[in-house]
Design a protein that fits this description.
The complex is a heterodimer of chains A (150) and B (290). With 150 residues, chain A is α+β, with helices and mostly antiparallel strands. Chain A is built from five helices and five strands. Classes of the chains: A alpha+beta (150), B alpha+beta (290).
């Protein structure tokens, strides 16, 4: 199936088998390996990307269903994503870093919709991203700091 | 592992035609794709219903109409629902994780399969999947239902409980019925908890009028991203209180507000859920003010 996607502002035209996941196409066909796959069944959030502004799980999203959509991944560079990257570093928002791309994309979705979230709103919006290192406190602080710096 | 076709029709008639035997309808895909990846109720084609123009929330008069492919997140964020149907908003906010709420559709949430580790086991064919044995009843069923029957798995749809107490109706490609009639106990001849016929799918849910008060309370293993161990919805219209629960039966189940655990004896391993159900029912009843 022919699929046209705009990924981080760049147009792409791809020929993909209809059942392949967006995560697989990003990582395998486009070598955009920033998006991580851990559970591959919608539980962990590490494959989170933005699809037309919504934080979705790319492991459970068909690439072929995204025709004409805008995709944002951790490889992108926007002022908000850069601010979050700096804040995650400054506030120890990770240890091993495997879940970080997904954490960052959930945080982007939150701050795009709610630029000044409460701590409770941050915890709710980040609840779909698991961190096995347990860096949750740093993650919450980083998102709050990035919001304040915006 | 995935070896199925994918179609994204733009017309409801075409979608119905594509949904022949062996094809399955898809909303957000969050339940369906995990089933297919594990070989549970396999399909040779997936028919994506999201290009049919069935998304959107319309408030008219006292009621609300929600298109079947509206995302759960859009229900949660809708100002009118938050104001007039707070129990429905709470139920939408209790679904899965933020990402699953963005992806998951209202129709898919109402039609999702039971949560049971035997039903979802790739190597077992349990009674509900067409086999001979309800493995849960001879095995580990700590989180299963309280209602005796051929299958003791539990219905997981938070929205179903919240919509049942609002007297919601569902519209399908061929008919209109009370939401309660969408669900039916599976039988030996028909191993499904939904009444939908092949080719039939939900197109909208309608709530005729707003209650005077409504709520949805849930107990999960965590405060977030946890299927309900038990979830209880309540709505009050004047002096009339309606209640329904999930997590206690393999159908979303209406409850008697004066005796919520009636008909739900449980088994030795699940009896703890009765106390949880009674506690949540009492909390829900207090929240709607009767």
């Amino acid at each position: 199936m022919q699929v046209r996607l705009t990924i981080n502002g760049q147009p792409h035209e791809l020929d993909v088998a209809p059942h392949r996941s967006l995560a697989d196409v990003l990582r395998t066909d486009l070598a955009m390996t920033g998006t991580k796959v851990a559970c591959a069944e919608g539980t962990c959030g590490s494959c989170t990307v933005l699809l037309d502004g919504r934080a979705v799980l790319s492991c459970l999203t068909f690439a072929s269903a995204c025709d004409s959509s805008k995709v944002a991944t951790v490889e992108g560079s926007t002022p908000l994503l850069e601010r979050l990257r700096d804040a995650f570093t400054a506030h120890d928002g990770f240890q091993c870093g495997f879940c970080t791309p997904g954490q960052l994309m959930s945080a982007v979705a939150l701050l795009q919709r709610t630029p000044r979230p409460s701590r409770a709103e941050i915890r709710t919006a980040m609840a779909g991203n698991l961190c096995r290192c347990g860096a949750y406190e740093g993650i919450e602080q980083a998102v709050a700091a990035a919001a304040e710096a915006g | 592992m995935r070896a199925f076709g994918y179609a994204r029709p733009a017309d409801a008639g075409e979608a119905a035609a594509l949904l022949r035997a062996g094809a399955r309808a898809m909303g957000g895909g969050t339940d369906l794709l995990t089933q297919l990846d594990r070989g549970i109720l396999p399909a040779d084609e997936v028919v994506d219903l999201r290009a049919l123009g069935l998304s959107g929330i319309e408030h008219d008069g006292g009621g609300v109409r929600i298109g079947a492919t509206t995302s759960v997140a859009d229900v949660e964020r809708d100002a009118g629902i938050g104001e007039r149907f707070p129990g429905l908003r709470q139920a939408a906010g209790a679904v899965g994780s933020p990402q699953l709420r963005e992806m998951g559709t209202v129709g898919g949430n109402l039609c999702q399969q039971v949560r049971c580790w035997y039903f979802r086991h790739p190597d077992l064919q349990c009674w509900l999947r067409g086999g001979e044995t309800c493995y849960a009843q001879i095995g580990d069923h700590r989180k299963h239902g309280l209602e005796p029957g051929d299958c003791i798995s539990v219905a997981p749809s938070d929205l179903a409980a919240a919509l049942l107490v609002l007297d919601a109706e569902v519209e399908t490609t061929g008919r209109r019925m009370p939401l309660a009639d969408l669900y039916r106990k599976a039988t030996a001849e028909r191993r499904s908890t939904l009444v939908l016929e092949p080719g039939e799918f939900l197109t909208a849910v309608e709530v005729p009028r707003a209650p005077d008060a409504s709520t949805y309370v849930i107990a999960g293993e965590r405060a977030a991203w946890s299927f309900a161990l038990v979830g209880v919805a309540a709505a009050r219209f004047g002096d009339d209180v309606r209640m329904a629960a999930i997590g206690v039966s393999n159908l979303p189940r209406p409850l008697d507000p004066d005796d919520p655990a009636a008909g739900l004896p449980g088994l030795e391993m699940t009896r703890w859920k009765r106390r949880l159900l009674e506690t949540l029912a009492s909390d829900a009843r207090a929240a709607v003010g009767r």
